[in-house]
Amino acid sequence: LVLVAALVALSFSGAIGLTFLMLGCALEYYGVYWPLFVLIFYFICPIPHFIAKRVSDDSDAASSACRELAYFFTTGIVVSAFGFPIILARVEAIKWGACGLVLAGNAVIFLTILGFFLVFGRGDDFSWEQW
């Protein structure tokens, strides 16, 4: 029951984040779809964690170099996702209002991804590794 409630909450927050992103692109005042390229960052964000989880052995409780490298790459991806709309707004490819909506969507989506790993990444009876 708890997992179902967590899944519903994560789905709802993901929908809110994507709504912010779509509003930053599709409102008639903004009307430019360049910010949709942050979707690429959403998809590649968990990849370093998946690779590190598969490669590193879970026998030691200490942090491994592979896991630390995965954290480093994930941090770079997240920072790039926040920097991309700011750069687009700075070169006037998009308006600053659209940049704000995309940044709000980024915050919600990345918190949703973090929540997914906190809820389903423990590896008890249900595991996302099966997917």
TrEMBL record:
Keyword RNA-binding: no
Pfam families documented for this protein: Vps55
GO cellular component: endosome membrane; Golgi membrane
Localisation: Endosome membrane; Golgi apparatus membrane
Main localization, broad class: membrane
Regions that span the bilayer: 6-25, 32-51, 71-89, 101-121
Protein name: Leptin receptor gene-related protein
Species assigned in the record: Corythaixoides concolor (Grey go-away-bird)
